Amino acid sequence: MKCQPHLLRQPRPHRRHPPAHGADAASIYNSNTRFDALNRLVTTNRAGNLTSARAYDRADRLTEYSTYSSPGTLRDRQVSSYNANGWLLQANSHNSSNNLTQQTNYNYSDSYDALSFPGAGFSPSPSRGG
3-class DSSP state for residue 53? Predict the structure, then answer.
């Protein structure tokens, strides 16, 4: 096949390329973040679409973290709860359907953690190292 020089030419620097996939070319890489009054990260956006959201309790601990794969489509959600000492008590993972997929409970007084996968029929007995 004969080389076609017009296919090898680079575009001139002053030429504007059309937007990719019909989006505004300037917003493809445009991302922004929003912080609350206490300077905690609350949301992140890319190209004008929500990509993650966070919630905090009064002690500034992260209680919920959600990510989104496309506008309004939940990818996953993490929910955490804490004891009176501020230690993590429970961490729950939810899938895109908001169904609980993993639950981790922390028991600091007995120094063991229990991990379970709801709906999977698997809930191991906590074991203590020794």
Answer: strand
Q: How far is CA 14 from CA 11, 17, 100, 124, in A?
A: 8, 10, 52, 63
Residues in the chain: 130
Q: Provide the whole-model pTM.
A: 0.62
CB 58 within 8 A of CB 38: no
Selection from 84, 79, 86, 83 nearest residue 60 by Cα = 86
pLDDT per residue as tens digits for the range 65-99: 999 998 789 999 999 999 888 889 999 999 999 99
CATH number of the domain that residue 98 is part of: 2.40.128
CA dihedral defined by 110, 115, 120, 124, rounded to 10 degrees?
Answer: -40
The residues, ordered by sequence, that sit 6+ positions from 129 with a Cβ below 8 Å of its Cβ are 112
Domains: count for the chain: 1
